[in-house]
Amino acid sequence: MALLLSRLGAFSHRHRGAVVLVWLVLLVGGGAGAVTLAGETSDSFAIPGQESTTALERISEEFGAAGGATAQVVVVAPDGQSLTTPASAATLGALVAELGQLPGVVSASNPLDPAAPSVNPELTTGYSTVTYAAPVGEVTPEQQDALIAAVEDAGDGALTVEVTGQAIQAPPHVGGPAEVIGVVVALVVLAVTYGSLVVAGMNLLTAVVGVGIGVLGITIATGFTDLSSTTPILAAMLGLAVGIDYALFIVSRFRQELRSGADVGTAVATAVGTAGSAVVTAGLTVVIALTGLFVAGIPFLTQMGLAAAGTIVVAVLVALTLVPAALGFLGVRALPTRQRGRAHTHHAASAGFLAGWVATVTRHRLVALLLTVVALGAVAVPFFSMQTTLVQTPPEDSTQARAEQLLADGFGEGAGGPLTVLFEGDGAVPAATAAAGEIPGLDDVALVTPPVPSADGTAALVSVIPQSGPTDPATEQLVADLRDLLADVDGAQASVTGATAVSVDVAASLDAALPVYLALVVGLALVLLVLVFRSLLVPLVGVLGFVLTVGAALGATVAVFQWGWLADLVNLEGTGPLISLTPILVIGILFGLAMDYQIFLVSRMHEAHSHGAAPLEAVRTGFRQAAPVVVAAALIMFSVFAGFVPSGDATIKSIAFALAAGIAFDAFVVRMVLVPAALALLGDKAWWLPRWLRWLPTLDVEGAALERPAARPRAEQPLVVGAGER
Known about the structure:
Number of strands: 11
Pfam families: MMPL
Subcellular location: Cell membrane
Structural class: alpha+beta
CATH superfamily of the largest domain: Multidrug efflux transporter AcrB transmembrane domain
Organism: Geodermatophilus africanus
Keywords: Cell membrane, Membrane, Transmembrane, Transmembrane helix
Distance between the termini: 28 Å
CATH architecture of the largest domain: Up-down Bundle
CATH class of the largest domain: Mainly Alpha
GO cellular component, one term: plasma membrane
Shape: elongated
Strand content: 5-15%
């Protein structure tokens, strides 16, 4: 692989103008395609084929508008009055009439309607259900704004009016000041690492080109298939982070080769053949982890994984072609002025803090290993109390939060997450009537509404209001109890649905898939690392580090987002269960990134050992060579992910926090302490491979094939580019 990639690097260097032009054409073409072909993204996280999702589709067919997205406009009478007083009733009637005329709305119920009242026994609190023609996740921002404006205007009078519901959930956003700060921090780290703002800018620019093409491709895909609104944000966050890092590894090796006295062409070819091999292997691990999300059997999750994996592929291709082309234009100007024109056999990375660090860690290797395991294990403890849901906790002091509090005060905690039972069949109405009398006997039931039949009488709806809130485990148990009770209804088929039931089903599916997915990625990690290092114990150390990283990252996320520890530090506006997508996405992404650092760090140790260094010296030499780049890469990736934490969107916030925490734990604890300590403790045994596995192919990540003179790509004739090329 190293030889093939070195030839690709040499080709990109020779034809650097054409390579840059091709990537620019792809970027411009992607922008044009996104403008003309882009469609709408969806905020719906349903699983086709599940009871709750299928029932929602059937409700749309049987009841028409009843299957659209809904919002609850909550109305509270002035102190000492009720909603039935003439003045309040008139104001309420006018509000309902206005709500029914809003863009996209097909109906708005009156809380005082005798046929289907939605007012508390004290007649002080009621709610109007505003139903849209569009399904959940597809109500436009303009329609949402119109509803919120109407509610704000109505709240200026005597009545207290607030609104909540899925119909007004805003899609995740990206591009705010916090994200920009993350990119600026990455640029600063690059500038300090390189000692050159020009090289840092080139590194960042190539990564932006890659992530731009990837995200534009996803935007084009929205015109042909339904994609979650989270998908492009996840792809941008991940693509930018790995794009910067992959370019960093290539550029750092290129500069090292220049310092050793190589000409520009040879340095480019060698950098792509060595660091590029590690980039391909690392990128492959991320792609495998993301595409492996299909094991969950959830279409929207599979689409998110495939889209993000496509962006990673683009980032790898950029690192292997566009970066070498850009380095060809820079030439020796990639080095600080004082280092040009003379060879350096000794680099600063071989001395200083990191050299002292690895010496201390490997000298006290057993203590360092035990402390690392105990510390990360302690941080991981909250993971075992993790709860997940699709129901997002609204920001404090928002109209959604105030509306939910008013509903809870007037009707109980469960009013914000009602369950809907659909009865279908010739005996649907009698079955629904009978069930409405039995359901109140279940635990956690606060209220059961009378059946609402369809026009032809072959279907009926019953609403069940739980006593507990939508994210409470008691509500999850009520969903299961309802299904058990209604499993054998005479004359009809009963299905439990509604937004809360969908959330329960998705969370259950993801929780069930999590162990399978974890086993898959751990197994892949073992196989991949055995192939890369031709060793059994090195992969076991890497997998142990990965498991500790994931546990600590999710444990810290639970402590902050579920328990509320240090909530102000991350601008958290409300605590509660984690979004259901968080654990499985974090495991998949951190798997790839942890293997990145493992490969880049340990490959240099393996290279030193292959060249005859003693086991302990090989660990220290490889660490001194690779650790500065790994630290810089981790700081960059941490800053990019951390930039998405203060954005205010609950879905992206928890995922970004878990990834940023995972990067910090993996790079600065696992790879900087656990790995060198464990390998120093193992000694020669670390590189042992049983005889029965020696048939495995050699991936040559270290680029051993390039050390043979005949294997090196022939450098092209000198081509002067400014004053720097030679």
